[in-house]
Amino acid sequence: MVIERNRTWGVPTQQQPSIVFESESELAAAVFVSLEQDLVVGLYAGDLLDTVAGHPNRPANWLYPMDLAVIVLDHGDPVPFVSYATVGRPLGKGPAWTYLNATNVAGVPLGVKAHPNDGKIDQISSSLGRRQSRLAKQRASLGSYLPHPDIDYTQGESFQGSSTKKKLVVCDGQEITKAKHWKVSVVRDAFRLVI
Length: 195
Known about the structure:
Helix content: 10-25%
Largest sheet: 11 strands, mixed
Oligomer: single chain
Structural class: mainly beta
CATH architecture: Sandwich
Number of helices: 3
């Protein structure tokens, strides 16, 4: 069940995860091949864990439903991710796209509205010059809001994009390949995470 305003998210649990993953990319791959199962997992580290466990009032031993995101590149195989996917360099010089299921991209809080169980993907698209790129990265590293006419923040259940040049795609910290075309979608309540 996707989160709702003014409702408690997650439930207390004594249940132990069936497996605890070292990385978000391993977790995403395991969830993707087990979508029909009720997978209950743990995670040692990563941006998803920082998003959920980083809240100072978060109670211990809770079970949280989580969404999974999937990106399909150049009409190829789907690549799942639990935290983020980038096409190009996030907030880098030139056009770039960032897709968020969690608030952070490699530890940097870019997705101020992102939530890992809202049934949506957050997209940040940007096309910055060198100086503006440097300033945006400095502000982002401090957790500051990034107002700029060349940075667009939107939410949706799916997105598609294309670039005139092939761009490097990174999912949950893992370089995947370079691509010119992509589609991103969300799988609601794909797994449950024990914290």
